[in-house]
């Protein structure tokens, strides 16, 4: 983790220009949107937002939701998406969305502590809404990035460069250490496992956003390291039980 | 070592020769052994069991929290070490008098249950077809509301139709119920008696072989102090009932006390491998061996005449006459164990004092298994080894009070819970449930299950899958499992319980000679906001009866789960004075008998003297107050208010045994009432008359797994994950089978395709397959799906599974082809009565193929009913019983609930 931190470029010091403020606010908005999509099942309000005000901007950003997404009755779609969310990210056999599971193979390990500590440092407490949720859930991690980007934008707006710099540092560090080594690759795998196009698109979009964000704060060598880490593929042993002799218990 | 060069200045030592070096070194080594030379500052980490535990990273002392294990059913005492709110290690609780600070492999790895990413962490509501795997996440509040609504519908229907029998449509089935009465409280509050245990796929015929004879359902051998042990069909060093404590004391006895161990098993288990003598009887013939030994003991006058006279309901003469046909030669003919060995072992057993037998599933899991157990039990009785130091003792447990008020039992007896055709099967016949429902004998509205996986664990398990998939037969199925088992995946609603390390239960297991209470308590907070089952029950009842108008909310008026536990423990005499529940939380167990001596491993008091268990429990005097107003019958039985409270022998009044006569009832009138032989007999099973191309299929447990629940535990799965068929070399050669060959094992129900493991360690007429493998559910590790469909399954990102799973074989489960076949007395499934044909695999066969027939299994059900006391085969098999066959009692439901 520390090696990544050291590869962060020094160009991330915030500059209080309107452009920067706008960019950080936009980034915050995107993180918050995808956090809302991944942290829990889609609710009616978010669905309406996606199908309404955000339809065009999302499409312009390359996130084109398919026709069914707009044509299906609201209640039906919410049910279908809830079922897909549960199968993809909640029920046993899912693509487990927690950093602890990705890094250690078990729930509630050190990545969970690191995430919670970062939240506390930035003034946030963690309170689960449903059982089985932990601070290192990908949705919550992304939502935290959204809060940090927002904090930076707000600090810049009020001319508090010190607070903006602190928020930016926290953002860079959190992105690089808590998400960079695994989250983009996880998104890619999760997108492959998604059965519903909405989640496939959310995850693909998230992957792109994360790589883009990481590229901004990491030099070429660091990025290469992150790419390698995110490529960590499961070993694919051939399933051929016939070849192994039964004796030698 | 070459010669040592040292400084060669005046006063210094000179060159040390190799000889001197060795001599000095050896002398120092010897001295160090006695004088503890060396640094007094350095000591091995985590050296002392039950001691402090220090974080290797921070150096901080870890919090230790006592608990009672539930990795399997032995309930060992444990201590969890917790660091930063996480369990980092489990070990034995040194205060537990029976498990003495030791856990088995399953217990040590139990914390992996807690952090398993394939654990169900939130209630799930089915959205697709049943079993399709489509779910919607809901909250505990929504889930308990839904269950309460379904239950209330049944209650309302019962009330509107004025038929309380409808309440029995609420079904609760468990595989392992260690809730200390919580499930019974819940079901009785709802008015239902349909509680279905799993005991008939476990050791129920052992229990029924013992209970009518002396009261309790199991023996507690004083292994450590015995001189002679005969083991019948138990692998006590690995798996049998009370494995950990029994295995410790068995080793104490064999190694420390030089006891002789003789073992009978169809397979070379680790217990038989440890024995002084091991025999491989034909399956289902342990009973005839025991009867032949009894024949020798009685006919050669080696019995304890006084004990038989005073403490049994038979005479020596009666036994001699009864045992006449069971000569060692007859036993050899049936069992293949040489008569000379049977005769010799019988003499040794009777003349070596003290001695004991132990038995478990080997003898009991057959049709007529209850007779076999009764025959083995009798050996201890006729030799006077009962309740002697080093002998065959009664189990010792302690009771705890239930919180008041308690709901009364349901008013209508349940057909499913206690099938009337099995009146002697006090632990009932759960295997018959799906067949009875499919035949329309009983209706189900709500089916709940806890710690239960019949779609995997039952014989002809496909029948249970068939039942659970039928939404007309089981309209609403609720699972409380924290794991997606083969049965849970067929539920409509999952309200996941926590693991055993996160919840409360009272316990008292008779796992040794020191009776004690113990507790389960959350060693860490329930992970991720999950909710323990006990709280779920409280929530459901409060929603079923929100305004108290049904009158059942009062039974769950606990402010918290801990309040419920206090109500169990705070009023127990003795414990109350020492702190009640608060003491239990600190110590995990009560009473504290002493400490474990580090050299002898015996329990000792503060002066180092051994704390001996109490023996001769049946000889305790009846309290004088109880004798007031009591009457003594002609047979010496002391009765008061219509209840037997003791027995008068000579001028003494003893409490005796838990039987109607307060003596050991080797003659069981209850058996005779239903046309069974009142004394232990041997019944030749159909498997003994098999065709030459057939083999007897047996199953066995291994030391690192339970039947079903441990397959997802990484440490254990790595240790054991495949289960080839054990087959004798001669048997294999006759079929052209080589070690590792793909084979097809075929019973009348169907076939499986698996592999052969050729070993001398099995009877030539038998094949054996272990349980615990071949899951089709229970998490991705147990299914090994990442190997089959990496793109879909390996995405979960568990590096331990994706990178460290080196094995590619999850085994093949034998249960689908095991035929339903039930002991008409004890109700046990005859696990070891299935005949199979074993051949090389056929073209097109693939490893893991399973093919079964529900129709054939239904025929098996009908066939096994013919053995029940009302069946035609019962009469044929019991011609010797002198009874009016035309006036047997009518089948009747158990009155007043269960």
TrEMBL record, chain A:
Alphabetized Pfam families for the sequence: Nitrate_red_del
Q: What is this protein called?
A: Molecular chaperone TorD family protein
Keyword annotations for this protein, in alphabetical order, are: Chaperone
Organism equals: Allochromatium humboldtianum
The record's InterPro entries line, in alphabetical order, gives:
DMSO/NO3_reduct_chaperone (IPR020945), TorD-like_sf (IPR036411), TorD/DmsD_chaperones (IPR050289)
Instruction: Output the superkingdom of the source species.
Output: Bacteria
Where exactly are the transmembrane stretches of this chain? Answer: none
TrEMBL record, chain B:
Query: Which keywords does the record carry?
Result: 4Fe-4S, Iron, Iron-sulfur, Metal-binding, Molybdenum, Oxidoreductase, Signal
InterPro entries xrefs: Asp_de-COase-like_dom_sf, MoPterin_dinucl-bd_dom, Mopterin_OxRdtase, Mopterin_OxRdtase_4Fe-4S_dom, Mopterin_OxRdtase_prok_CS, Prok_Mopterin_Oxidored, TAT_signal, TAT_signal_bac_arc
- What range(s) does the 4Fe-4S Mo/W bis-MGD-type domain occupy? 62-118
State the needed cofactors, names only: Mo-bis(molybdopterin guanine dinucleotide)
**Record PROSITE patterns:** 4FE4S_MOW_BIS_MGD, MOLYBDOPTERIN_PROK_3, TAT
| Xref: Pfam families | Molybdop_Fe4S4, Molybdopterin, Molydop_binding, TAT_signal
Q: Does the keyword Iron-sulfur apply?
A: yes
As given in the record, the signal peptide range reads: none
- A GO molecular function held by the record: 4 iron, 4 sulfur cluster binding
UniProt entry tagged with the keyword 4Fe-4S: yes
NCBIfam families in UniProt? TAT_signal_seq
Q: Which family does it belong to?
A: Belongs to the prokaryotic molybdopterin-containing oxidoreductase family.
Q: What is this protein called?
A: Molybdopterin-dependent oxidoreductase
Instruction: Please give the organism.
Output: Allochromatium humboldtianum
């Amino acid at each position: 983790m520390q090696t990544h931190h050291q590869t962060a470029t020094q160009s991330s010091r915030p500059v209080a220009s309107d452009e920067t403020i706008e960019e950080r606010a936009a980034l915050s908005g995107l993180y918050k949107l995808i956090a809302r999509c991944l942290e829990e099942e889609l609710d009616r309000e978010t669905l309406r937002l996606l199908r309404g005000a955000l339809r065009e901007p999302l499409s312009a950003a390359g996130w084109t939701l398919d026709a069914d997404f707009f044509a299906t009755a609201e209640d039906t779609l919410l049910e279908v998406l809830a079922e897909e969310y549960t199968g993809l990210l909640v029920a046993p056999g899912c693509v487990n969305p927690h950093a602890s599971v990705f890094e250690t193979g078990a729930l509630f390990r050190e990545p969970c502590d690191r995430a919670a500590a970062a939240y506390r440092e930035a003034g946030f407490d963690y309170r689960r809404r449903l059982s089985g949720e932990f601070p290192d859930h990908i949705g919550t991690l992304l939502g935290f990035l959204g809060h940090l980007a927002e904090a930076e934008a707000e600090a810049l707006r009020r001319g508090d460069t010190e607070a903006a710099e602190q928020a930016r540092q926290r953002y860079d560090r959190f992105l690089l250490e808590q998400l960079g080594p695994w989250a983009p690759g996880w998104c890619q795998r999760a997108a492959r496992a998604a059965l519903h196009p909405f989640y496939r698109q959310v995850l693909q979009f998230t992957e792109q956003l994360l790589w883009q964000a990481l590229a901004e704060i990491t030099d070429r060598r660091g990025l290469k390291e992150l790419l390698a880490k995110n490529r960590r593929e499961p070993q694919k042993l051939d399933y051929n039980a016939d070849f192994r002799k039964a004796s030698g218990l | 070592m070459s010669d040592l060069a040292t400084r060669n200045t005046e006063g210094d030592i000179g060159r040390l020769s190799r000889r001197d070096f060795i001599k000095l070194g050896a002398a120092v080594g010897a001295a160090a052994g006695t004088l503890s030379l060396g640094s007094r500052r350095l000591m091995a980490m985590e050296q002392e069991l039950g001691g402090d535990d220090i974080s290797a990273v921070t150096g901080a002392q870890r919090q230790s929290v006592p608990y009672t294990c539930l990795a399997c059913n032995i309930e060992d005492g444990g201590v969890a070490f917790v660091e930063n709110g996480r369990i980092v290690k489990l070990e034995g609780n040194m205060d537990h008098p029976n498990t003495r600070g030791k856990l088995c492999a399953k217990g040590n790895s139990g914390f992996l249950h807690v952090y398993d990413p394939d654990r169900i962490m939130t209630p799930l509501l089915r959205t697709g077809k049943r079993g399709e795997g489509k779910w919607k996440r809901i909250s505990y509040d929504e889930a308990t509301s839904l269950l309460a609504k379904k239950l209330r519908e049944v209650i309302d229907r019962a009330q509107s139709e004025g038929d309380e029998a409808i309440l029995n449509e609420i079904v609760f089935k468990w595989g392992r119920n260690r809730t200390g009465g919580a499930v019974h409280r819940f079901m009785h509050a709802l008015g239902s008696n349909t509680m279905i245990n799993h005991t008939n796929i476990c050791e129920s015929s052992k229990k029924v072989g013992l209970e009518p004879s002396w009261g309790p359902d199991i023996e507690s051998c004083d292994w450590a102090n015995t001189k002679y042990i005969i083991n019948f069909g138990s692998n006590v060093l690995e798996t049998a009932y009370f494995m950990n404590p029994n295995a410790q004391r068995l080793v104490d006895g064999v190694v420390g006390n030089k006891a002789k161990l003789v073992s009978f098993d169809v397979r070379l288990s680790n217990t038989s491998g440890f024995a002084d003598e091991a025999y491989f009887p034909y399956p289902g013939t342990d009973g005839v061996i025991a009867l032949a030994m009894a024949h020798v003991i009685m006919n050669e006058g080696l019995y304890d005449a006084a004990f038989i006279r005073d403490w049994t309901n038979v005479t020596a003469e009666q036994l001699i006459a009864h045992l006449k046909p069971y000569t060692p030669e007859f036993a050899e003919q049936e069992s293949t164990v040489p008569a000379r060995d049977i005769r010799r072992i019988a003499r040794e057993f009777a003349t070596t004092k003290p001695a004991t037998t132990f038995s478990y599933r080997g003898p009991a899991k057959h049709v007529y298994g209850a007779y076999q157990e009764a025959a083995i039990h009798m050996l201890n009785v006729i030799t006077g080894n009962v309740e002697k130091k080093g002998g065959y003792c009664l189990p010792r447990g302690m009771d705890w009070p239930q919180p008041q008020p308690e709901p009364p039992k349901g008013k209508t007896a349940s057909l499913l819970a206690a099938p009337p055709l099995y009146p002697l099967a006090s632990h009932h016949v759960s295997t018959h449930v799906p067949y009875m429902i499919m035949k329309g004998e009983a209706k189900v509205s709500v089916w709940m299950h806890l710690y239960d996986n019949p779609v995997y664990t039952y014989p002809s398990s496909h029948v249970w899958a068939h039942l659970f998939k039928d939404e007309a037969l089981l309209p609403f199925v609720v699972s409380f499992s924290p794991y997606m088992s083969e049965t849970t995946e067929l539920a409509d609603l999952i309200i996941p319980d926590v693991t055993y390390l996160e919840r409360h239960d009272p316990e008292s297991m008779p796992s040794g000679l020191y009776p004690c209470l113990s507790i389960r308590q959350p060693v860490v907070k329930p992970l991720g906001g999950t909710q323990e089952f006990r709280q779920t029950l409280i929530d459901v009842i409060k929603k079923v009866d929100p305004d108290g108008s049904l009158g059942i909310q009062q039974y769950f008026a606990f402010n918290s789960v801990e309040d419920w536990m206090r109500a169990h423990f705070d009023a127990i005499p003795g414990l109350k004075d020492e702190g009640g529940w608060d003491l239990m939380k600190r110590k995990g167990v009560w009473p504290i008998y002493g400490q474990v001596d580090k050299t002898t491993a015996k329990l000792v008091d503060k002066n180092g003297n051994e704390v001996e268990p109490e023996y001769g429990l049946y000889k305790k005097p009846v309290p004088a107050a109880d004798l007031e107003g009591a009457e003594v019958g002609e047979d010496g039985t002391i009765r008061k208010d219509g209840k037997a409270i003791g027995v008068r022998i000579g001028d003494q009044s003893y409490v005796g045994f838990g039987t109607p006569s307060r003596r050991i009832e080797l003659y069981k009138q209850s058996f005779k009432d239903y046309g069974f032989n009142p004394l232990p007999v041997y019944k030749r099973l159909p498997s003994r008359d098999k065709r030459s191309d057939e083999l007897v299929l047996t199953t066995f447990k291994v030391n690192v797994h339970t039947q079903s629940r441990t397959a997802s535990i990484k440490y254990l799965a790595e240790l054991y994950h495949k289960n080839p068929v054990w087959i004798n070399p001669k048997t294999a050669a006759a079929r052209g089978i080589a070690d590792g060959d793909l084979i097809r094992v075929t019973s009348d129900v169907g076939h499986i395709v698996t592999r052969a493991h050729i070993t001398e360690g099995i009877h030539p007429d038998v094949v054996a397959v272990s349980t615990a493998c071949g899951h089709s559910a229970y998490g991705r590790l147990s299914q090994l799906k990442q190997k089959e469909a990496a793109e879909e399954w390996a995405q979960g990102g568990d590096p331990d599974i994706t990178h460290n799973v080196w094995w590619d074989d999850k085994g093949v489960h034998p249960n689908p082809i095991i035929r339903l076949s039930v002991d008409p007395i004890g109700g046990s499934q005859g696990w070891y009565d299935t005949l199979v044909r074993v051949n090389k695999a056929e073209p097109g066969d693939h490893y893991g193929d399973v093919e079964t027939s529900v129709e054939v299994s239904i025929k098996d059900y009908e066939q096994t009913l013919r053995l029940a006391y009302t069946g035609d085969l019962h009469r044929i098999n019991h011609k010797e019983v002198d009874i009016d066959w035309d006036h047997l009692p009518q089948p009747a439901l158990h009155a007043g609930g269960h």
